[in-house]
UniProtKB/TrEMBL annotation:
The keyword DNA repair does not apply. The keyword Hydrolase applies. Residues 417-640 form the Glycosyl hydrolase family 67 C-terminal domain. This is Alpha-glucuronidase. It comes from the Bacteria. Residues 109-391 form the Glycosyl hydrolase family 67 catalytic domain. Keywords: Hydrolase.
């Protein structure tokens, strides 16, 4: 398979490649030039000195990465104030296709909402005995690593950088946040491998970051402690960081998962997470690097019998007292929900509660809890909701955070993402990171047009039919009303009704014969609802005002509790599970009808995935419905068979 064929098949460049283009030379602009020369060779245009129809030029005033587009007197002009802006301008023209060359266009300016738009790869350098090569990876092996070292498939890495640039991503972390021993060595002995990757990604405006272990000094033969206030430890990090910048002058910085799910961290030394982050920030500061410090800190050994312990509270409880204490180049990276990337969670109350700290919101493009790229589940609408959340309830346009980060869903699979339709998630993430206010459906239109150049109305409509509502469909046939986590332990695929119910991971649904849900109210529950500002704290605190789709996240209610729809909770559970399966059956039917309009191998791969999705959806429906039927003893009022 042609590695360029994702959303940048040659055909997507047709309109550009037929024009006479003028482009400056040097540095990253050479990437633009190369793209134009390639496209012109295919489609008949030329890169010229004068008389151009498509002009790229550098000017002042558009800010980092911004660009402007105009068309007058038959000339389409892209201007930018830096080279990356020209690159993003090129991809914008490619997205527009012929439209960029039709009639006059008033000047439009484009600037990214988030300066850093980053993808974290949970790639292990060597195959991990439990997690494999890519932790939570559903797209084959790693693009970057194999057998304990850089894989060396540079053409593929280059194509990947190009794909990412085309949707606006400008930073990549190349290894897993769980830094095992082989990965730890990337920081020192194997920094050359990281530098080689950085060299290939750089021409596409992408800076390379590295996950490091907090215990690096101890693990890599430095001082016998990792205490962040110990002078020898600080010196060790400063020296290690000097060497990293010796190898990669534009290195982005470190990503750290500390005191989280068994990873080492500052708590072992009685230090705070600000102490830990600031030590690394100090080492990176002379070079303009950044430390991304993850806020996913919770006790994964809690006791399910202790109903007062609430994992959802943990990040807020740990971090809000530290607001204002993090260095300027430390970014607190917060998962969008308080638990862990479930199909439905409230937005983390930490977001908006730390005004004096730089925050990055972390999304999960890899579909760990949303069908593992065997189920079609387009997450654009979910992310759009998350990014539109206003902690104070105002419909202001203020940004939720300073940066946007996501866990990558890409591997060495010929379709990049295992499920070819999962590419839409990666593309949508990049575009929302550029403009979080964009309509996700319009982004999906872009992806469709780029990925299937010349797509007719039938194909476009068909793709919308199977993707637009796919998140809602997935939500319907899996765990109900925001309760989450009714998954198989460990790998997290498929239903596991009580999978985590009696485990120490802190993810419970508390279903018994009378009701279901987690009481997180301030009166009788864990008090989590009180971590929000008004109006959310008030709305979430009462089952009467809590949004339906989060009801069981915030409240333990009887099965007979009546939702605003007029249905009881138990009937809602039955109905949505039947509906979810019916929706998958319909999506599969629509997809079958698109044969002939989609490249055959791609069509076949998606068709195969729909068989598995349907099997999985039925399994979910049957297990969830029969579980709640047996617990509650309340029959389905429509008399359907529940196994
Ligand atoms: C969970 C994953 C686990 C990750 C962890 C994290 O199950 O593999 O290591 O999040 O974000 O979702 O650190």
């Amino acid at each position: 398979m042609d590695v360029d064929a994702a959303w940048l098949p040659a055909e997507a460049f047709r309109a550009v490649g037929r024009r006479r283009s003028l482009v400056p030379a040097g540095g990253l602009v050479d990437t633009v030039r190369r793209e134009l020369v390639d496209a012109c060779e295919r489609f008949g245009g030329r890169v010229v000195r004068e008389d151009a129809e498509l002009v790229f030029e550098l000017t002042e005033g558009l800010g980092e990465e911004g660009f402007a587009l105009t068309r007058r007197d038959g000339i389409t002009t892209v201007t930018a104030s830096d080279e990356r802006g020209l690159l993003y301008g090129l991809f914008h023209v490619v997205r527009l296709g012929e439209e960029a060359f039709a009639g006059d266009r008033p000047r439009e300016e484009h600037r990214p909402a988030y300066a850093r738009r980053m993808l974290d790869h949970w790639d292990n350098v060597a195959v991990h005995p439990v997690m494999g090569q890519v932790e939570r990876g559903y797209s084959g092996g790693s693009l970057f690593w194999a057998d304990g070292r850089a894989r060396g498939d540079w053409e593929r890495v280059r194509a990947y950088g190009r794909l990412l640039a085309a949707c606006g991503i400008n930073a990549v972390t190349v290894n897993n946040v769980n830094v095992h021993e082989t990965e730890a060595r990337l920081l020192t002995d194997r920094i050359g491998d990281v530098a080689a990757i950085a060299d290939v990604l750089r021409p596409y405006g992408i800076r390379t970051h590295l996950s490091v272990t907090f215990a690096a000094p101890v693990v890599l033969g430095g001082p016998p402690t990792a205490d962040p206030l110990d002078g020898a430890v600080r010196d060790w990090w400063a020296r290690a960081t000097d060497a990293v910048y010796g190898a990669i002058a534009d290195f982005g910085g470190y990503v750290v998962k500390a005191d989280s799910e068994g990873r080492p961290g500052p708590f072992a030394y009685g230090r705070s997470h600000a102490d830990g982050a600031n030590m690394l920030a100090a080492a990176l500061e002379p070079y303009g690097g950044t430390v991304h410090w993850r806020a996913f800190v919770y006790d994964h050994h809690q006791d399910w019998r202790d109903r007062g312990t609430d994992r959802a509270r943990a990040a807020y409880d740990h971090f809000t007292p530290l607001d204002g204490r993090f260095a300027k180049n430390a970014v607190l990276q917060v998962k969008h929900g308080p638990m862990d990337f479930q199909v439905r969670e409230p937005v983390s109350p930490l977001i908006g509660a730390m005004p004096r700290t730089r925050l990055a919101v972390e999304l999960q493009v890899t579909q760990e809890y949303t069908g593992q790229q065997r189920h079609a589940c387009w997450l654009g609408p979910m992310w759009s909701e998350v990014l539109g959340f206003r902690p104070d309830g105002e419909v202001s346009t203020g940004r939720l955070a300073h940066e946007l980060v996501a866990v990558s869903n890409v591997g060495d699979d010929p379709f990049w993402t295992g499920h070819p339709l999962a590419q839409a998630n990666l593309y949508t993430f990049g575009r929302l990171a550029w403009n979080p206010a964009a309509d996700p459906r319009a982004i999906l239109d872009e992806w469709i047009a780029l990925t299937h150049p010349g797509a007719d109305d039938r194909l476009t409509a068909g793709l919308h039919t199977v993707l637009d509502g796919s998140w809602s469909t997935y939500e319907k046939y899996t765990a109900p009303l925001g309760v989450g986590f009714m998954v198989q332990p460990g790998h997290h695929y498929g239903p596991g009704v009580d999978g985590y119910e009696y485990s120490p991971w802190g993810t419970y649904h508390f279903a018994d014969r009378d009701g279901v849900g987690v009481d997180r109210s301030t009166g009788t529950g864990t008090g989590y609802a009180g971590q929000y500002a008004t109006p959310w704290s008030g709305l979430y605190d009462s089952p009467a005002t809590c949004p339906d789709d989060l009801l069981l996240f915030f409240h333990h209610v009887p099965y007979t509790h009546v939702l605003p729809s007029g249905k009881t909770v138990i009937q809602h559970i039955y109905d949505t599970h039947f509906e979810g399966v019916a929706e998958v059956e319909e999506a599969r039917r629509v997809w079958t009808g698109l044969a002939g309009l989609v490249e055959p191998a791609r069509h076949a791969r998606v068709a195969e995935r729909y068989e598995e999705q349907l099997r999985g959806a039925r399994e979910w429906r049957d297990q969830i419905n029969s579980y709640f039927l047996r617990k509650s003893g309340v029959p389905d009022e429509r008399g359907r068979t529940i196994y």
